[in-house]
């Protein structure tokens, strides 16, 4: 019985400490996303790459820009470190409350005409804790 309880506690703990959050811009034009402070966040910018120019903004600041030739410029003033992957994903490491806000992805054609725009409202939550309690009869509770 104790072994089953320990396995259940480990599984529950694993769901709380996944390590990263994933948010997608292409599933909806307007969506919300929640991330845990201190963890990583993956933004999936697009599912298909149609070329053209892309800009990712945090509130009004352009934090990533990809030109029509594929060159990427990254400007992340409130982020300790980030990685941009060629598949259209940007990973933000160690997110904090400073990263709260609206992220807007705008895509333009080669003439500079806007093709589409989508928003993700990010809310960074405080670090959660998991408590394990042992009773006198050796039961564990999470």
TrEMBL record:
Matches recorded under InterPro entries: Ig-like_dom_sf, Ig-like_fold
Keywords: Signal
Signal peptide boundaries: 1-19
Protein name in the entry: Immunoglobulin V-set domain-containing protein
Residues forming coiled coils: none
Source superkingdom: Eukaryota
Lineage: Eukaryota, Metazoa, Chordata, Craniata, Vertebrata
